[in-house]
């Protein structure tokens, strides 16, 4: 399976992202410390930057990203918004947003290793598309491991849950998808219309 191994802090700085979006609160980089001035970006450069940003945040490589775009284009509504919603609906993203992993990379690994159930059935495909009403929980045999123990109890890290995910009992490793995500639920700045313009050429 192909993996995105780009350095987090370096890419975040290049793409104008906060490492907190990726789940890293203490990441820094010494790259270009004085912030030397760059020439004005071209229209193509801005479009490409937005695409690279979204790919990087969700950990999706080019071929899969293009497939998401084609699916978004065929669906009703605005292509750019459809694209972001499809990416938000990925199981690894839901695991991260529900607070069962500190980063999307960790979430992807946990899903791949078979630690999660969706509606009582094991799912080990990070790109699995969740639906409204789906119940996502950690497998019984995995709950006692140190990997997941840290996410429950008094010492569990504070998680800002999105409105579309319901985790009623913070001491349980279970979350319910209350509704499908919408454009306003995306938690980082992105101009998706630039991505649509890029692919429309």
Please provide a written account of the structure.
It contains 8 helices and 5 strands. With about 200 residues, it is an alpha+beta fold. Helix 5 crosses helix 6. The longest helix is centred in the first third of the chain and has 16 residues. The two termini are about 30 Å apart.
Features:
201 residues; alpha+beta; five-stranded antiparallel sheet; 8 helices; 5 strands
Summarize the structure.
This protein has 201 residues and is an alpha+beta fold. It is built from eight helices and five strands; from the N terminus they run H-H-H-H-H-H-E-E-E-H-E-E-H. Strands 2-1-3-5-4 form a five-stranded antiparallel β-sheet, covered by helices on one side.
Distance between the termini: 30 Å
How are strands sequenced across the largest beta sheet? 2-1-3-5-4
Q: Roughly how much helix do the residues carry, as a percent range?
A: 25-40%
Unreliable segments (pLDDT under 50, ≥5 consecutive)?
33-37
Tell me the strand percentage band.
Answer: 5-15%
Order of helices and strands: HHHHHHEEEHEEH
User: What is the mean pLDDT?
Assistant: 87
What oligomeric state best describes the polypeptide chains here?
Answer: single chain
Shape: globular
Number of strands: 5
How many alpha or pi helices? 8
Which structural class is indicated by helix and strand composition? alpha+beta
Radius of gyration: 18 Å
Major pleated sheet: 5 strands, antiparallel
């Amino acid at each position: 399976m192909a993996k995105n191994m780009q350095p987090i802090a370096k890419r975040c700085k290049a793409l104008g992202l906060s490492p907190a979006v990726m789940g890293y609160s203490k990441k820094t980089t010494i790259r270009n410390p004085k912030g030397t001035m760059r020439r004005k970006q071209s229209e193509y450069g801005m479009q490409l930057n937005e695409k690279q940003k979204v790919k990087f945040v969700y950990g999706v490589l080019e071929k899969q990203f293009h497939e998401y775009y084609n699916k978004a284009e065929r669906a009703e509504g605005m292509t750019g918004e459809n694209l972001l919603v499809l990416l938000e609906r990925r199981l690894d993203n839901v695991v991260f947003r529900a607070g069962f992993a500190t980063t999307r990379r960790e979430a992807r690994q946990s899903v791949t290793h078979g630690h999660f159930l969706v509606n009582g059935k094991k799912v080990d495909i990070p790109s699995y598309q969740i639906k409204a009403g789906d119940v996502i929980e950690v497998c019984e045999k995995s709950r006692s491991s140190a990997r997941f123990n840290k996410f429950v109890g008094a010492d569990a890290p504070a998680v800002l849950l999105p409105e579309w995910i319901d985790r009623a009992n913070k001491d349980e490793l279970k979350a319910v998808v209350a509704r499908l995500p919408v454009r306003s639920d995306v938690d980082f700045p992105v101009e998706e219309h630039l991505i649509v313009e890029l692919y429309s050429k």
